[in-house]
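Researcher: Good morning. I'm working through a list of sequences from a screen, and I'd like to move beyond sequence-only analysis. For each chain I'm collecting a predicted structure so we can compare shapes side by side. This is the next one on the list. No need for commentary yet; just the structure.
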Amino acid sequence: EEIRILSNLETEKEKLLQIILMGQVELKEKLSLPRLRQLNQRISIRYHLQPLGKEEVPRYIHHRLTVAGSSGDIHFTPGALREIYNYSRGIPRLINLASDRALLGGYAEQSREIQRQTVMKGLKSLEGEEAPRPGGIFKRRLALGLVGLLVFVLGGLFAMFFLDSDLIPLRKDRSSPASPSAEAKSTQEKGQGNSFYTIQIGSYKTEAEALEVAERVKSTGYPLFLARAGAADGGSSHRLYLGRFAQKTEAEEVERTFKRVEGFSQVQVVLTSTQLSKKAAP
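Model: Good morning. Structure tokens for this chain:
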């Protein structure tokens, strides 16, 4: 009902809002319900995304890896790609799920090359068997690549550890220390050691773009940080972060506020490593 009312906002010349609805096949069924008839009648353009072809799956995975910041050093073998396609039949959601488990398996094996067997083990874990677990000594660079790449398949609001970048404070940190009551909360909600939760506002091609956005959000009073990360084309991207939060719930509350503001729908809560938090300390 709220969407229907919003769709009525217009001037004498034009509509004030362009509304785009996206979902799985169940969305079409829901829109067909009698109580949503008026909303359904207002939809002017409809498009159903068909499953990807076998030759498109490798390009799709490569694109998602690139978006996640891959420099091209994570490689899926032809056999691995074939297994992912056979499982997913080209459905992006299932491709993401299979790729997620395969990357976890690659981390467990400490390998940047994802083999067919790694994919098969991951798919078995989806059937209820035990998922692959990391073994041996934690490899810093390997973890950086794999954890970063998991962002594109895991999605949502989860804490991502940043392990190898320069986080530069743009303003003095004015966050207050965590209260005793906050410290008593579950350790799952806390940053470990000297690490802290922060909010990734966005990733930008140039530092100037990042600084322009920083000007828009600096009035919130939260500390701002800028980090440079490698890009797939050999260049670099500039990521803007806001706030230092001892508790994940605090960060998520601010995150929800930002997501209601136009242009900030993609913000997400992340967790810095102890090393990074030391670099970021003012």
